[in-house]
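During the second half of the funding period, the structural biology subgroup turned its attention to how the target accommodates small molecules. The most pressing case was magnesium ion, which had performed well in the primary screen but for which no bound structure existed. We therefore specified the complex as follows and requested a full 3D prediction, including the ligand pose.
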Amino acid sequence: MVLIFNTARKTVKEERKNMPDVDYTFKILLLGDPAVGKTSLVQRFLHGKFTKDYITTVGMEPYNRYQEINGSNVLLNLWDIAAGTLFTSIRNLFFKGAKGALIVFDLTRRDTFENVEVWLEEVGKFSPDLKFILVGNKNDLRNDRVVYRREGNQKAREIDSCIGYIETSALTGMRVEDAFLQIAKLLYDENAR
Ligand SMILES: Nc1nc2c(ncn2[C@@H]2O[C@H](COP(=O)(O)OP(=O)(O)OP(=O)(O)O)[C@@H](O)[C@H]2O)c(=O)[nH]1
Ligand SMILES: [Mg+2]
């Protein structure tokens, strides 16, 4: 037991040593209906990878990415939140302290687009000042698309806390980096001066 404990402590210490000095940390949530591609977007952003398998997220998965913004070292603390109804009662525990979010819907399923406001209402109770970018994902499935760009743009314009609309594909990688960096830069501009 003692041996395991010591090994774990050493690993954490080693990890800390390798961390760059951080000027700012921003907690950013990934929200949206089940299977819209939240985990896939994070995996693409962090590792440049995509998998066709669907393994639903359980509870929440945290991820970190260091990002240089305007000469500052920024730690993006990404919280990939499980959408399943099983987690509704505990989800709000994860919202505290979040400054930004990606609210994701699936361009091939209209109900996921209509539920954007439901997510906004849920998170708004706990993080009233949260800013978000609206993300229409699965842009590669052109023939199956049922939500149109002008609808995404219109929704983004109508909601005050929304900083814009972007269409992505975790499969091809299209505009994934852009989606995360747009919200990160906005948070930097609002909080780091
Ligand atoms: N064609 C296509 N498929 C995608 C894309 N993004 C995700 N998928 C697929 O959609 C399914 C669900 O993706 P996930 O990333 O697990 O979805 P999620 O939003 O994290 O789902 P929960 O964790 O259950 O809330 C998987 O089979 C993915 O391979 C995309 O951009 N294009
Ligand atoms: Mg997931």
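Two results from this model are relevant to the next phase. The pocket of guanosine-5'-triphosphate (ligand 1) is lined by residues 34-40, 51-52, 54, 56-57, 82-84, 137-138, 140-141, 169-171 (CB under 6 Å). The beta strands are 24-31, 60-69, 72-81, 100-106, 131-137, 162-167.
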